[in-house]
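Protocol check, entry for the methods section draft. Step 1: assemble the input record (protein sequence plus ligand SMILES). Step 2: submit for complex structure prediction. Step 3: store the structure tokens unaltered in the notebook. Ligand used here: zinc ion. Step 1 record:
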Amino acid sequence: MRVGFGFDVHRFAPERKLILCGVEIPYHLGLLGHSDADVATHALIDALLGAAGLGDIGEHFPDSDEKYRGVSSLILLEEVIKMLSQNGFKFVNADLTIVAEKPKISPYRTAMKEKLAQVIGCPLAAINIKGKTTEKLGFTGRGEGIAAYAVALITHA
Ligand SMILES: [Zn+2]
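Step 3, stored output:
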């Protein structure tokens, strides 16, 4: 068994879609980034790469690469799952915490879990997603952006 941890932050920007775990969430702001800026999926990808000892998201999918402009982060996650299997690893489970003052995460949790489980090819119960606020403190509390944390467990296939 191997464990990995991931963390990511993206700032809010106008005229962007808000995508979290592959689900589009209705909100007047989206997240800024080279890809779809899916902060939660990015944290999960870093947790998986960390568990496998395969570096980080920026190394595999650099911002400088036009190929990844506007790309769905679920495509990147799919690539990472392939990398895991090429390296003899199998996904076990993941736990994500999404830190946002607004919008509320809980109504979208099931849809998010379904998207991730579909890409990973795991049971729904192997993914857990939690939404948290920071009690109006800090950049997340001021509604300047969203942070996400993830831990993932993998095992030798
Ligand atoms: Zn990111």
